[in-house]
Write a structure and sequence with these properties.
The protein is built from 9 helices and 8 strands. By secondary structure, the chain is α/β, with parallel strands linked by helices. The chain has 2 domains: about 70 residues; about 120 residues, Alanine racemase (TIM Barrel). Strands 7-6-5-4-3-2-1-8 form an 8-stranded parallel β-sheet. The longest helix has 15 residues. The two termini are about 30 Å apart. Pyridoxal 5'-phosphate (PLP)-binding protein, which is involved in PLP homeostasis. GO terms for molecular function: pyridoxal phosphate binding. Its cofactor is pyridoxal 5'-phosphate. Keywords: Pyridoxal phosphate.
């Protein structure tokens, strides 16, 4: 096996049943995604809409590949991740999951674009658990109202919550808080997207169902052009 395949296998060995590994492929070339795909990986996470669009077009022939958008998403860039179908042509690739819904306007645009494609997008609400001014995500106090509004939108499937804990703090209390916030909503949401290369085992112990792992699989991130 290659180094990438070995690293991928090592990460998988630490997962529990019911946990989906999202291989974070942002800034990685399409060839690296293809290599991970050949090693059995199917779920990939991207942060930048236009970078994702180029890779999705190059890898469109790979069956069962599932794209997760895990970066901040501007409303005017939803058209890139959920592109409109063209009459008489096959539907262009689209992301299957958006982990970073943090405001109603974004959810409404995702709903509109997903409906135009005739399908549904799975979404997670990003929560700023550390209440950091420099990070996106809705405030914990705003979460119930946002969740209720998003759950009512057509062509969206609200699946759960996502967070990125403060880098300088123990992540475990933040993971536990996200789980508690999810449970308090009373909406029977199955998923928690939390945990990255440095802390995904702790996230799994705290209830993560989706872990976003990049460096531990692909190696050090390439600088963005």
């Amino acid at each position: 096996m290659s180094g990438l395949a070995d690293r991928l296998a090592a990460v998988r060995a630490r997962l529990r049943p019911g946990v989906t590994l999202v291989a974070v492929s942002k800034t990685q070339p399409a060839s690296a995604i293809r290599e991970a795909y050949q090693a059995g990986q199917r779920d990939f996470g991207e942060n930048y809409a236009q970078e994702w669009r180029a890779k999705a077009a190059e890898l469109a022939a790979l069956p069962d590949l599932v794209w997760h958008f895990i970066g901040g998403l501007q409303t005017n860039k939803v058209k890139y991740v959920l592109p409109a179908p063209r009459p008489g042509a096959a539907a262009p690739p689209a992301v299957g999951w958006v982990h970073t819904v943090d405001r109603l306007a974004l959810a409404q645009e995702l709903s509109r674009r997903a409906a135009a494609r005739g399908g549904a997008a799975r979404v997670l609400l990003e929560v700023n658990v550390g209440q950091e001014g420099s990070k996106s995500g809705c405030a914990p106090g705003e979460l119930p109202r946002l969740a209720e509004a998003v759950a009512r939108l057509p062509a969206l499937e609200l699946r759960g919550l996502m967070c990125i804990p403060p880098a300088a703090e123990d992540p475990r209390p933040h993971f536990a808080r996200l789980r508690a916030l999810r449970d308090a909503l009373g909406l029977a949401l199955p998923d928690l997207s939390m945990g990255m290369s440095g802390d995904y085992p702790a996230a799994i112990e705290e209830g993560a169902t989706l872990v976003r792992v990049g460096t531990a699989i692909f190696g050090e991130r390439r600088p963005q052009p």
